[in-house]
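testing teh design pipeline on a random one, pls ignore if ur not involved
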C-alpha cells in the first residue's frame, strides 16, 4: 500500500503512516527535549507543529537514516527574524545516532532530540522504505 502522508500527534507521541484516510502503520516516537509548544527559534528544542513536506531522504548522516521535514516555512522564518533570531532547521524524522549502543526502545521513552522526531533504527528502516520525497507531514500538538 502506498504511503501518501504522515500524521504526527505530539502529545500522544505517535506517528501514523497513512494511505488516503487509512492508517497503515503507527510508531511511538521521541520528540525535542521541550516537547510542549511549537518550534519558533533555533535552539528551543521544540518540535514544529503544522503542515510540511518530506523534502529529502538520507542514509548518510550522523543518525541512522533520516527524512527531512520542510521546516521552517516563510511565515516561521519571518516570525523568528522579527525577534532578531533564526527559526532553526534541519528538522528530521530519524533513527538513533550511528554510534549509540544503548537500548533504543528504552531511550525512545524520553524526549531527547533537538526538535526532531525519533524512532528506533529498525523502525526507521521500515519508514524509510515506505516514505517517498514529496509527501505531506502534518504535525499536531
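output:
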Amino acid at each position: 500500500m502506498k504511503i501518501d502522508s504522515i500524521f504526527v500527534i505530539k502529545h500522544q507521541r505517535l506517528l501514523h503512516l497513512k494511505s488516503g484516510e487509512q492508517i497503515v502503520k503507527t510508531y511511538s516516537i521521541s520528540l525535542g527535549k521541550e516537547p510542549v509548544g511549537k518550534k519558533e527559534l533555533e535552539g528551543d528544542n521544540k518540535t514544529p507543529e503544522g503542515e510540511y513536506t518530506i523534502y529529502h531522504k538520507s542514509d548518510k548522516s550522523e543518525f541512522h537514516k533520516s527524512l527531512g521535514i520542510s521546516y521552517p516555512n516563510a511565515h516561521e522564518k519571518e516570525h523568528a527574524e522579527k525577534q532578531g533570531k533564526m527559526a532553526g532547521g534541519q528538522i528530521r524524522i530519524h533513527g538513533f545516532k550511528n554510534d549509540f549502543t544503548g537500548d533504543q526502545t528504552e531511550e525512545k521513552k524520553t524526549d531527547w532530540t533537538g526538535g526532531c522526531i525519533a524512532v528506533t533504527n529498525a523502525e526507521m528502516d521500515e519508514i524509510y522504505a515506505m516514505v517517498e520525497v514529496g509527501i505531506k507531514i502534518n504535525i499536531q500538538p
